[in-house]
Design goal:
With 249 residues, this protein is of the alpha/beta class. 42% of the residues lie in helices and 13% in strands. It contains 6 helices and 7 strands. Helix 5 links the parallel strand 4 (191-196) and strand 5 (218-221).
Length: 249
């Protein structure tokens, strides 16, 4: 009888140990799975946080057919310039270098920041101000304009930081201030950066510096940009991207 009991006790202990071992093993497997899932989620969150969205508000320097709206005038590609692929544009080079994505490119060839274009034409329906709402949901906004304002010799106007009328915004300085104010209110979470072309009139250069300084907006002043037919070449596009990166953007 004693032997039977001892045998039963031994079997009972063996079974108990087996189940304890099984429970421990099962717990370890579950913990490994949980840790793996946590690692995957952390990696996904980290990658998502780093993938910023970039929007561009510009003129012909930032155009490319098939990327900008179909009804907009585009300079690129052009048989008078060696930029033939979208990957050669400054904004494509920039987003690739940073690992960012392009949200929207609302660039329209020949357009001005203000409401006065070539031949004193009223451009209020196509200027930069009229397109503020077309940039999607960006983390970074690049505004690359002022070139046509300078080339068209649009009225420079006076510095004005509130209460703009349509007539006020036919001049460059009030229009630029109005544009920055609108962008800041429309996209309060976005980083805003203006790009100033090289070889423009000093009036436009100084106005851009003063208005951007007033609003605390970063301004990148380009230099030594190679151009073909008045527009950045492949080399010029690379220089623009490099200067943006050098500016810490």
């Amino acid at each position: 009888m004693k032997r039977r009991f001892e045998g039963f006790q031994w079997n009972y202990l063996a079974v108990s140990q087996f189940f304890r071992y099984f429970a421990t093993l099962k717990t370890e497997i579950m913990m490994k799975r949980i840790l793996f899932l946590m690692l995957m989620v952390a990696t996904w969150v980290s990658a998502s946080a780093q993938t910023k969205k970039v929007s561009v508000l510009g003129d012909s320097y930032s155009t490319f057919i098939g990327v900008i709206p179909a009804n907009y005038s585009s300079f690129y590609p052009n048989d008078r310039n060696d930029v033939t692929e979208v990957e050669q544009t400054w904004w494509s080079l920039y987003t690739k270098a940073k690992g960012y994505s392009l949200e929207k490119n609302d660039s329209w060839g020949g357009t001005t920041i203000c409401g006065t274009g070539y031949g004193r034409m009223d451009t209020s329906r196509s200027n930069f101000i009229s397109r503020v709402d077309s940039l999607g949901n960006p983390d970074i906004i690049f505004v690359f304009g002022g070139t046509n304002d300078a080339w068209a010799r649009a009225p420079i106007g006076e510095y004005q930081y509130s209460d703009w009328t349509k007539e006020d915004c036919k001049s460059f300085r009030p229009a630029l201030a109005c544009l920055i104010d609108m962008l800041g209110k429309r996209y309060p979470q976005a980083k805003l950066c203006f790009i100033l072309n090289s070889e423009l009139s000093e009036e436009v250069n100084e106005s851009m510096r003063e208005v951007c300084k007033h609003y605390g907006v970063q301004l990148v002043e380009l230099h030594d940009i190679e151009k073909q037919n008045g527009h950045p070449s492949i080399s010029g596009m690379k220089s623009i991207c490099e200067q943006l990166l050098e500016a810490g953007l």
